[in-house]
Amino acid sequence: MADPEQIAALRDFNRFYTTRLGMTRHGLHKTDHPLAEARVLYELGAHGVLETSALKDALAIDAGQLSRLVKRLQEQGLIHRTASPADARRQQVELTGEGEAAFARLDQGSREEVGALLDALPDPEGALAAIQKLREAIEPTPTRDVRLRDLRIGDLGWLVERHGVLYATEYGWDGSFERMVAGIAAAFDPEHDRAWVAEVDGQRAGAVLCVHDTPANAKLRTLLVEPHARGLGLGTRLVNAVIEHARRQRYRTVTLWTNDILHAARHIYERAGFTLHSEAPHHAFGHDLTEQTWSLTLQPWTETH
Question: Does residue 139 fall inside a structural domain?
Answer without folding.
Answer: no
